[in-house]
Amino acid sequence: MAAGVSLVSGPAVAAGPVAPAAGHGVAATTGGNPGKGGSLPGGKTFSSPADRTVVTPLAGSASGSGGTARAQGAQGAQGTQGGKAAQAAAYLAIDLEATATTAHSVDLTTRISSEAAGLDITIAWGDGTTDKVTASSTGYDRRNTQHKYATVGSYAITVTVNDTTHGAQAVNRLDFVTSGSEYTAHAPTRLLDTRAGLGAAQAKVAGRGSVVLKVAGAANIPAGATEVVLNVTATNAAGAGHVVVQPDKDGFETGSNLNYAAGQTVANQVIVPVGKDGSVHLINGGWDSVDLLADVTGYFTASVASGYTTLNPVRAVDTREGIGTAKGQVPGYGSFGLDVAGRGGVPKGVTAVALNLTATNPRAAGHLTAYPSGQAAPSTSSLNFSAGQTVANSVIVPVGPDGKITIRNGSWDRADVVADVVGYYSTDSRAALVCLGGPYRVIDTRIDSWGRKAGPVPARTMLPERFDADTTNSDIDGWVLNTTVTNTTGSGFLSVTADPNTWPDYVKGTAVTPQRPVSSSVNWTAGATVPNLVQTSGGKGGMIDFWNQGWTDIDLIVDLIAWYQTS
To answer: Would the CA dihedral through 294, 295, 296, 297 be positive or negative?
Structure first.
């Protein structure tokens, strides 16, 4: 068996509790819940200023002449309309601001200017529900009101203020879109290949250069797509470097999605927000040129589709042991079907499954492709390998109507295949994706952070990290992390799993030793820098364990990409 994919046993040796570490030029997180207005970037903001307020006579009031006026410029309307209602238009105004604090919720700030002694305020949330309050102060009323939507989507929030003193009614509206979005499966399709001029110019991406990839409207991806799932591959690299994928050209310069060495072909899955122009930017962070490829396997929209459910990693395939398929290496250009629905905690009727896919013991260079059953093999790749290499990649695979997926060996010679199921997407799941604008560094063991001095993760130990607030009932169902291992001196593999403890358990010294996992998230050899996207639960306390399952020390870098949230 190849190192890094074999099952392991033995007592776990837990590292001491540490705080999340800072990245290069990025402040460390402080344990604030990113889904509840914590310190991490993100959180859409919407506004409807006071000058959009429409003031009319209050229904049934004898005051006023029935005129209508905007809050701004209403003094001019006062003389022509007459009456108390027209006078009210001169000072009655509603200013609205809203923040998408979690996947499904809104924090609405209302600022109401009025000279009335009392106001009746009605907030219609756009989903058929309303909140009603009474303001007793004169001159100015400011308040924050929270609301949770049952489903993600776009909502028109309307605030109506009745000024019975002057017989006037003011109305203002704010168009709000939830931060959460849900997944729609897409048949694996190549969108970018700089070698062939597909999706961009036929030329390598220069060192420190970038390529703009149009995704909205391409390959039937809708214009309203908020995020896209891409398998990004770097190849023909003239030197070592890294790739950052993000909606805009600037920002998030300290994170990375993909690391490559000279001459290496390496792939990594990316979940990235779509820019306002419907594009994403692939930035070559190296000093030398490289070819880039990108294959789409799904997209997210702020509308009801498929939510996510995380699972503890379950081994679904191991051709070395005959798990999930026949025992024995997959022949060159051979394939096998894998039943995923109705097994290992994955229910029937799912639309897609999240896997950590590993190739090991390959006899020659090649690639693996995972795709829905019942379809012809696409001209895309899920991971790339060289002879003798053990390499893993996270993939989201649409599930065929029979509940199966197909895994194909794209090499001319034999290889073993291992796959761990880490979650699934279904119409019954309601955990929605909240995505940052690019990789946000939260751990880098190479540098000091508060609570932990710089230093590698020792062999055969685990590093527990807090990603949520000090909670015992986290509403975040899953975390999306880009996890990179570097400065390796031997072979090994990394396991990423939910910690059964909470942060206060570690602080009080009552934390139990977690059970050592058997799944692998990242595989490496001596001298390698290896990234992989990881989707994992944080458990009840929002704690995640990073297990160095190798026999030599490693440095660990973790960039936060997104999270899935039920509230």
So the answer is: negative
Instruction: Spell out a b/e string for 518-530, using b for 16 or more CB atoms within 10 Å of the CB, else e.
Output: bbbbbbbbeebbb
- CA atoms 295, 301, 306, 311: torsion sign: positive
Asked if the model's pLDDT at residue 101 lies above 50, the reply is yes
Return the closest-CA partner of residue 380 out of 393, 367, 394.
367
406-442 pLDDT, tens per residue? 999 999 999 999 999 999 999 999 899 999 988 889 9
Contact call for residues 83 and 63 (beta carbons, < 8 A): yes
pLDDT value for 87: 60
Residue among 559, 556, 545, 532 nearest 497 (CA):
545
Contact 1, 327 (CB under 8 A): no
Quote the CA–CA distance of 168 and 248 in Å, as a whole number.
46
| Pick from 258, 257, 222: nearest CA to 240 | 258
Q: Is 548 exposed, middle or buried (0-12, 13-18, 19+ CB in 10 A)?
A: buried
Q: Say if residue 75's pLDDT is above 80.
A: no
Do 63 and 166 contact (CB within 8 A), yes or no?
yes
Radius of gyration of the chain (CA): 27
Distance CA 359, CA 308 (A): 26
pLDDT per position as a tens digit, 128-173 = 999 999 887 677 899 999 999 999 999 999 999 998 888 899 999 9
| Band of pLDDT at residue 449, cut at 50, 70 and 90 | confident
CA distance 16 to 507: 10
Task: Determine contact, residues 432/480, Cβ cutoff 8 Å.
Answer: no
As beta bridge partners, residue 157 has: 174
Per the listing, tokens 């792939």 go with 267
- Total-model pTM: 0.88
Query: Contact at 8 Å (CB) between 412 and 385?
Result: no
Question: Which residue type is seen at 222?
Answer: P
Q: What is the DSSP letter of 44?
A: -
Residue 74 phi/psi, 5° resolution? -75, -20
Retrieve residue 13's tokens.
């040796």
CB 111 within 8 A of CB 137: no
